[in-house]
Amino acid sequence: MAYKDLLVHVDDGKSSAARVDAAIGLAIAHDAHLVGVYVVTDPAPSSFVQGYLPADVLDMLQRQARERADAALARFAEVAKRNQISFETRLDRVLYTAMAEALAINARYADLVILGQADPDDAAGPQYLPEEVTLSSGRPSLVIPYIGPGATLGQRVTVAWDASREAARAVNDALPILQRAQAVGVVTVNPREGPFGHGEEPGADIALHLARHGVKVEVQRIEARDLDVANVILSHVADRGSDLLVMGAYGHSRLRELVLGGVTRTILRDMTVPVLIAH
Prior knowledge:
279 residues, alpha/beta, Rossmann fold, 2 domains, ten-stranded mixed β-sheet
């Protein structure tokens, strides 16, 4: 497997430039084509808005939105040309409630979609939950923190392994990065031993699988029964100096996580390094 088609979400937010730089770095590393997509969002159907706004005001707002989109895509194209990669720009227009779905549809024609973490202090940044795109697209997502990806991306990788279908999918989708990494660590938190859990030696089976793909792995088992799993993983990532976390998204039902909270939501909210998620 190789990354040959990448897609990055471009917007007006403060974190967009760093997200684009990360995507271009991946395109260079994997000799991949990169699509920059900007989604223009309307607040409501035109027929509804026209009942409250004069037509000339509505036209002005739509024109300004298009101008912002053109400017953002022009900035993306300039950086892509400077780095001499294969690229294209794409513009989509949807209701604001459908932004994640629009990104998901575009992502279905890519190997990996690069998204941004929502910044509560930046209204121009991503206004969607990255996991919504992942759940709808059938493709893995690389989520870049709004503080930026750091000096490196994918050189020191941590894989959060819980022996689930989602984690297996994430590992497979991350293989092109794992095979190029300098160091890969697999961490299991409170693993269940046995054939219907993590195996007789938790983490050993996935380490052997990765070794057959040329990935040398270190396995660490963490027992932390009284601590929140998400924060255990985030602390482990920080302690290792990892620059990427790979994990499955929503091993439990999404409704359960939305109501009770869960590992996926906590990590994507509190992440400080890029996270590659798959479902």
